[in-house]
């Protein structure tokens, strides 16, 4: 449907050939913008609705008291569905520590929550299909569990700021939402999300369209193709400080993959961008010492590089 | 009525405070609005996702930026 509309617009309205460089780039731009905005709205709505059942206050109750192994799997899965904006990182962290949830399990939650979010999931699915989307989620959750486990084993509790342990957590009953409130919440989230990302999205699609139309194939295959061993770590190290918006990056990645960049390299680049964000590090600094943050960054970076190689091997 | 907006200072928390003030003005009720930014105080309400809204010491909403209309419903 979107393809037909883009065809019609480019060929009949603008009178360009899709096979020409500019026509091809324009077609890519129109088609991607329409498809992504549509899927995004539908999916953010659906997922927000589901999320309204999993506020962090409830999640805390579910995780605390569980055995460590079960708790960390639960934390990773709940990280996927539980809503929290980065400004809640600090209260969330303190709340979990207070509830006696081990540090490793807490990190599992902190890692899986940004990596596997509904927006990147929609983008992956719409651009690369379900197989890559499922693999991405699976490995994102696995990374969160393993990295959390390693952090737990390292006994880094001493690097948590001492005041965290002195805060008294009150008990509160958070009111259940009504069905109508859940729908309203989902609708608000769609509007918020689209408002927040449309600029990044258009820029990303624009650059993607340009790559699609103008960048020569062999250039990228040589530097970032399957045979290039260093491509994965370089992509990850570039991705970490590049944290902006995974959404804007995906259309670029799509175009790059079309030009021969290996899929694992592309996906680990994206994971690096979402998993380790500088603003979140700044927030985490309020509750933990730099050593712990450094450890966290190191372990997650290594994990993402490993995932990049695994993806390249199996895709 | 004492209304507290709990938040560590992010954009959404500030917007919620503004919305609360607008809702009060529209409802023409006598209410005291307080912004709570101290993390210890926020946690003492058992709240882990901000912004949160506390009315007369009772948590009524967490992790949501309520609109003026929604707030008017809550505060009535």
Overview of the molecule:
The complex is a heterodimer of chains A (315) and B (76). By secondary structure, chain A is mainly α. Helix content of chain A is 76%, strand content 0%. Chain A is globular, with a radius of gyration of 21 Å. In chain A, 44% of the residues are buried. Chain B is an alpha+beta fold and 76 residues long. Chain B is 39% helix and 25% strand. Chain B is built from 3 helices and 4 strands; from the N terminus they run βαβαββα. In chain B, strands 2-1-3-4 form a 4-stranded mixed β-sheet. In chain B, helix 1 (11-27) crosses helix 3 (68-75). Chain B starts with a strand and ends with a helix. The relative contact order of chain B is 0.28. Classes of the chains: A mainly alpha (315), B alpha+beta (76). The interface between A and B is medium-sized, with 30 and 27 residues.
What do the pLDDT scores of chain B average to? 86
Percent range of helical residues of chain A = over 70%
* Strand proportion of chain B: 25-35%
Low-confidence residue ranges of chain B = none
Strand adjacency order, main sheet of chain B? 2-1-3-4
Please provide the ordered H/E string of secondary-structure elements of chain B.
EHEHEEH
Please, how many helices of chain A? Answer: 16
Largest interface by residue count?
A-B, 30 and 27 residues
Shape of chain A: globular
Shape call of chain B: globular
What integer value in Å does the Rg of chain A equal? Answer: 21 Å
- The structural class of chain B is alpha+beta
* Share in helix of chain B: 25-40%
Strand content of chain A: under 5%
Q: What about the largest sheet of chain A? A: none
- What is the count of helical runs of chain B? 3
Low-confidence spans of chain A: pLDDT under 50, at least 5 residues?
Answer: none
Keywords:
heterodimer, A: 315 residues, mainly alpha, 16 helices, B: 76 residues, alpha+beta, four-stranded mixed β-sheet, 4 strands, globular, Permease (chain A)
